[in-house]
Amino acid sequence: MRLKPHLQKLFAAPTVGALGEQREIRPIAIKMNLLSANSLRYSYAQQCVVNNVSISLKRGEIVGLLGQNGAGKSTCLRMISGNLCPTEGEIFVAGHNLLKEPQLAKQKIGYLPDEPPLYGDLWVDEYLTYCAQLHQIPRNAVTAAVTRVKRQCELNSCGRKLIGQLSKGYRQRLGIAQALIHQPDLIVLDEPTIGLDPIQIHELRDLIRELGSQHGIILSSHILPEVESLCQRVEILHHGEILHSEALQQPDSKMLDIQLAEPPTLERLQQLSCIETIEPLEERHFLLQPAQGVTPQEIASQLVGWGVQTLSPQQKSLEQIFIQLTSGEVKE
Amino acid sequence: MIITIARHELRRLLISPISWFILATLQLLLSWQFLVTLDQFNGLTSGQQQLGITSLLSLRLFGVASIVSLFTIPLLTTRLLSEEYHNGSFTLLRSAPISANAIIGGKYLALLVYLVVLSLIPALLITSIGIGTGLDWGLLSTALLGMLLLNASFAAIGLLFSTLCQQPSMATISSYGLLLLLSLTGYAGGALGWPALLEWFTWSDHLMQFQLGQIRSIDLIYFLLMIGLPLLLASHHLAAAGNWQRSLQSRFNHLLFPLLLVLSAALIIGLSSQYRVQWDNTATAGNSLSPQSIQLLTQLKSPLTITSFAPENQALRKQISSVIGRYQQHRTDIKLQFINPETEPSKAREQGITLAGELRLEYEGRLEQLQQLNERTLSNAILRLLGRPEAWILSLDGHGERTLKGKANFDLSEFNRALQANGHKSHNLNLTTTGFIPDNTGVLIIAGPRTTLTTEELKQIDDYLTRGGNLLLLVDSGSETALEPILNRLQMGLLPGIIVDTNGRRLGLENPAIAVITHYPEHAALDGFRLLTLFPQAKALEPLASNIWQHQALLITQHESWNETGQLQGEISHDAKADEQLGPLTLGLALSRERQTAQGPLQQRIIIIGGGDFLSNAFLANAGNQELGLRLIRWLSADDRQLVIPTLKRADSELHLSQTAKGVISFGTLIILPLLLLGLALFIPWRRRRC
Predict the structure, then answer these.
(1) ipTM exceeding 0.95?
(2) Contact: A134, B91; criterion CB under 8 Å
C-alpha cells in the first residue's frame, strides 16, 4: 500500500538530514538488524541465479560479498537495494519491508550499482541536486548536502563539468556521491573501487571505513585484499549460494610462517613452551600457532639457534578459503 | 515529486539539441505552408473566401504540425524511459523512494510542457495575420485544443512503448508502428467493409473536427482515452515490472488490470457514440444548423428517412453524413441510409435516380428528391415534405398534344416520372370524357394541341382560369391556331417563326434552332437556379398590354438570336424586313394575379413557354431541363415556400496585409525564427560543454 505523502512523514523515521548534526538515530535501530534479507531466491527464465541467500547487517558493520564474476553478487545487491524483486524471500531495511513498503524502505538505502546511474548531459551539480531532490531532502538543505558529498568524494573541482566528459574514476566517485547524498542508514556498493587508481582506491577505502562507523555498509568485490582490509564479515557467494560466512580474524591471533635453515625434529619444536601448535608444510618450512600472549619476537629469539630464515604472520588466508571453496575442493 | 522529475526532464529536453531542431524544422515547414496559403487566399473566389482564412489556415497548418508530431514525438518519448533503461540511469529512479505514478506523471508532464510550445507555433503564426483581418478566435482556440490533445495522445502512446521496451530503437519503432496504424485504419476500414469502427480509431478525422471549430463529445472522448489508457498502462507496467512472477495473484492482477482498462474504455466508446454532445465554436456557427432549420425540424411529426444513392466513396459519403448529421443532432428520428447505385442499379432506376449522389427523402409516404445537398436545399425539401398540396397535375389530352402519360418521343412521360418521384400526383385529362376540370387540380398542363379545341372545352378552360386555376401553357409551332383563344384570353401575342440561336454553336450544337438559356432573371420560381437549359424549336412570346395580368419574363434568349421566319436550310441570317426581331427575345413568361377567394387572398399563377420540346422525353435529360420543369411546376402548384437561411459574412473572409507587414511576417517566420531556433540547438550544448 502506498501512503499519502503527509502520512509517509508520520510513519517514516525522523528525516535523515543532510547535515550530520540534524541526524537522529532511533535507539531501535541499534538493537535490530539494519538489514535482514531472508532466504532470497531469484530465478530468471527457469534458471536460479540466486538461491537461499540470507544476509544481515547491523549499524556500524561493513559486510563484504565475495565471489567470482557471475556468482550472483550484483543480483543480490540489486534485490537488497530494491531494484529487483526477489522470486522468494523477504527483505527488511531498518524495520520496513522493502517489498511491501518500498518507498519507506528506499529512503534508508543508498545504492551504487555496477554502472553508476548518471546523465551524461547534465552538470555534476545539477545531477547531485536532482538526486538530493529525488530523496526528498528539504529544499533548504539541498545545497549543503551537495557540498558535503562533493567534499567527501573529492568532486569539488568539477561542479560545472558535464558528466559525459568525466573520466571513469570521477564517474565512479559521482556514483558514490549520489548514494551518500541523503545519508542513508544502509549503503549498498556494487564493486565500488572499480576503475579507480591506487591512490583513489586508498582514499575510498578510508571513506568507507569512516562511513562504516555510523552506517551499515554492504559491498561486493572480487578483490580479496579489499574485502580483507575493509570488512568485518565476509560472505562468499558461489553459483548463487552462500558457501562461507565468517567474521574476519583480528591480526593478533594470526599464525606464523617460519623457515629454518637447520630444523630440529618436529617433536623438539612441539615441546617449546612458546608454541601452541606447529605443523610442517615442507621440509624446513612450518606453520605455527604461538602460545597465548607470546609475541613473534620471543619466538624468534627461542628459535634463533636453528637458523631462522624467515618469520612472517600467516593466517589460513581468505584467499585460500576462497580458492578452495570456489574450486570445489572443500565442502563445508 | 512529480514536479521534481518534470523539471529535471524539461531541463534535459531544453539542453538537448534535438528538441530545438524539431522546433526549427516545424517552424520552417509551417511558415512555408503559411505563406503559400496567404498567397493563395487572395486568389480564391469569394465563395471560397467565405470559409474564412482562419479555418483555411488552421486546416493547413495544424495538419502539417500533426504530421511533424507523428514523426518526432516517438523520438522524444524514447528518451524518457527506454533510453534510461539502456544506459542504466533508470536505477537512480528505481532506487529512490518514488512511486511509478510519479515517474510516469513527471516525465509526461515535462513532455507536455514542450508539446504546448510545439502546438502554439501554428496558432501564433495564424495570430500574426490578426493585423490584416478579423480572426475567428473561437475556431483558432478550438483547433489549438485539438492539436494539444493530439500531441498529448501521441506522447502518451510513445511513453507507453518507452516504458515497455528495454531497447530504445524498439521503443521508437513500436511507437511509429502504432501511430501509423492509427493513421491508416480508416482506409483499411473502408476496404474491409466495417468502416465506422475502424474509422473511430483514426485520429485525423477527430482532429479535423477541432480544426473546423467544432468540439464533439465523441472526439473529446477519443483523445482522452488515447491519453489516459496508455498512461495508466505504462504506470501499471512500471509498478509491476519484475514483480509479476512473485505470486499467482499478482500475475493475475498484472493481466487483469489492462483487460479491465480496455473493457471500460470500450464501454466509454460505446456510450459516447450513443450520447453525443457538440459545441460549435466558430464565430458564425458555421458547423451548426441555422435557427430557421431547427425550427423547421420541430414540425416533423414522424420519422424522416433519407436515402442517399452515393457510390461506395468514403469521402463523398462522409460529406453527406456530416450534413445530415447536423439535422440528426436535433432529431434522432432522421435516418440516413446509403444505396450504391452501381451495385443496385435496379433500385436506383425504380426510384428515378439519374445522378449518383442523389438523395431521396421520405416522410409520411411523401417523397422529395434532392440533387444538390446543403442546408438550404435540404431544409427546403423538408419544408415541402411537411406541407405538400394535395392537388393533381393534369395534362390536357385528346388533341394530339404532349401528355404526361404518353410514351412517344415528344410526350412527357419521363417528366411525369420525375414529378411522381417528387411526390406529385398526376394524370391525363380528357375533357370530352370527363366534361369538366376537377376542383382539386393544382396545375393544368396544355402542351401544344394540334387540333382545335371544341367550344365546350374552351369554355371549361375559361371557367378554370376564371376560378383562379394555375396553368402551364406550352406553345409549339403548329399549335398556334389551336391555342389562339387561350392566348387571347391571356393577352399574349406570338412572334412569327422559330427562334434560332448562334450561341449553340459554342456548345457544339449543330442545329441552330435550339435556344440556349444561361442566365435567369430574379423570380421565385427560379431562385438559385443556375443550370443551362436548351429549347429546341421554340417560339418567341410577345406580351400585350394587360391590366389583369402581371407579366414577368422567366426565360430570355441571348443577343445572338432571332425569330427566323424563313426555311431552316443552308445559310440563315437575321432579316429585319421579314418581321424578324433580334434577341433578347422572351421565351417564357410568368403571369400572376391576386384574387380574393373565400379562403383569403390567393395568387393565380400561369406560365407560358414558347415550346414544349424541352420537357419532352427526347430532350428532358439535357442539361437543366428537368430541374427547370420541376421548379416551374413547384411554383405553379404554389409549393414555393422558401426557407430563407441567412448566410453570415465572416470577418476573416478578407485579408488586407500591407506589403511591409507581409514582408516582416515572411522574413520573420521563414528566416529569422528558424535560424534562431537552429542557433539555439547548436549554442546550448556548446555553451554547456565550455563551462
Answers:
(1) no
(2) no
